[in-house]
Amino acid sequence: MTASPAPRRSDATRNAILAAARERFATDGYERATIRAIAKDARIDPSMVMRYYGNKEGLFAAAVALDLRLPDLDTIPREEIGRALVTHFLDLWEENEELTAVLRVGVTNQAGAERIQGIFRDQLLPMARQACPDPGQAPARAALCASQLLGLALTRYVLRFGPAVALTREEITAWLTPTVQRYMTAPDPA
Questions:
Q1: 111 touches 37 (CB < 8 A)
Q2: What is the 3 state secondary structure string of the chain?
Q3: What whole-number distance in Å separates Cα of residue 142 and Cα of residue 123?
Q4: If pLDDT is split at 50, 70 and 90, which confidence band does 90 have?
Q5: CA distances from 32 to 26, 45, 56 (A)
Q6: What's the CA gap between 121 and 118, in Å, rounded?
């Protein structure tokens, strides 16, 4: 029987940094969390944080694990998929400041963008494969849904465009539901 290799010191350092970062971001929020404070919590030099993650944005993108907790399509009538997704995302954005922080990082940092791409690839794409009439179109349809949902989040929660902020949940749902429904379930328009 072979013994499993001992964990590398770099793995332990990365794990300590990520654990400290998650705690610090949760406690202080993205804006107030600092590399120095995270390094102190991890009991390492701040230069090690920079070595592994480049900057605060890269660290945040690596530290935040987001589960969108998407609704189970088996429990939703096909004609209600658009409404279910829009209302679910509104609930998520309004209850979870981490999502807004991840979006902010994602539009300014490559690691953050990759994190958002991974979340949607791993969580929204399987739903699109299940819902759309041609599973081969699922990547395009998931991307179109993401454009609507992330566009709303960007204008309402990050950039805070007055008209987007002023919309009620009911108005947003009424406007976006038909578009998201079409993207997920309509026949190929081509």
A1: no
A2: CCCCCCCCHHHHHHHHHHHHHHHHHHHHHHHHCCHHHHHHHHCCCHHHHHHHHCCHHHHHHHHCCCCCCCCCHHHCCHHHHHHHHHHHHHHHHHHCHHHHHHHHHHHHCHHHHHHHHHHHHHHHHHHHHHHCCCHHHHHHHHHHHHHHHHHHHHHHHHCCCHHHHHCCHHHHHHHHHHHHHHHHHCCCCC
A3: 10
A4: very high
A5: 10, 19, 11
A6: 5
Report residue 66 CA to chain centroid gap: 6
Upper half-sphere CA count for residue 174 (Cβ side, 13 Å): 5
Amino acid identity for residue 125 in this structure: L
Pull the structure tokens for residue 124.
Answer: 């929204």
For 92, the token pair is 């998520």
Q: Tell whether the torsion through CA atoms of 169, 119, 143 and 104 is positive or negative.
A: positive
State pTM to two decimals.
0.75
State the pLDDT at residue 4: 55
**What are 166-187's pLDDT values in tens digits?**
999 999 999 999 999 999 999 9
Residue among 106, 113, 183 nearest 143 (CA):
183
